[in-house]
Amino acid sequence: MYLLLFSDVDAVTCVEDIPDDDLTSTSSTVETSLPHADHDYDQRPLPLEEQLQEARKTIASQEEELEKLRNNRFFLERFQCDDRLIMFYTGFKDYLTLMAVLCL
Predict the structure, then answer these.
(1) Fewer Cβ atoms within 10 Å of its own Cβ: the N or the C terminal residue of the chain?
(2) How far apart are CA 87 and CA 98, in angstroms?
(3) Mind listing the pLDDT tens digit for each residue in 39-97?
(4) pLDDT tens-digit profile of 43-54?
(5) Domain residue limits, the chain
């Protein structure tokens, strides 16, 4: 038999293995936290306009992050005029040698 004890708002205590005739003795206690607010069906969801506004904010921030990541990509063409950087990043003496090997 299982008995759930709500001792405080942030946690639920589950008491296991209690004999049916003796509810005062406990053999083990497990504490779990309450579900995340996203899954709390006891609260009303945000109105649709607010949900839409939050979704637009999320999309805008993700688009900004995507643009930053696109600008930080490693492009070999960026270094094609600098033999020193081609040698540092690839080990080939220049861009033409690198392209000759890659295009075999």
Answers:
(1) C
(2) 9
(3) 667 778 888 999 999 999 999 999 999 998 887 767 777 888 899 999 998 899 999 99
(4) 788 889 999 999
(5) 3-35, 48-102
